[in-house]
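Supplementary Text 2. Reproducibility record for the structural model of the 119-residue chain.

All settings were left at their defaults, and a single model was retained for analysis rather than an ensemble. We include the record here because the model underlies the residue-level annotations in Supplementary Table 4.
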Amino acid sequence: MTRYAVLIGAADLSQGMQKSLVEFKDFLTGGAGGLWREDEILITGPLGWQFVQLLQTRLRKYDFVLVYRCRLPHSVLSEDYSEKLKELTDGNGVFITDECAEFVRAEEDDESAPARSDG
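Retained model, structure tokens:
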């Protein structure tokens, strides 16, 4: 079975990454998340229409597609693309949307990301 995960953040990745993206990637690459390989996961910042179209074409070749979208709380986007993103997973995957406010600085790597606190 071929699979591919697209993890979408709400901010420019050069300035940092939303903590939930780091944690979700760590989950996917771990035993509980299915031991996904690094080359099966794409992490990207906010999407434009051209990139959504590229994803539509590229993801058709996979048996299973996971799209995880991390939005900022209370954000209002002029172009949301949620419906198009959901279509990418129709019949062969999962679409997850989450509100993620906490950021990890760009110079921190995955190992140094702080542990999740639910409090």
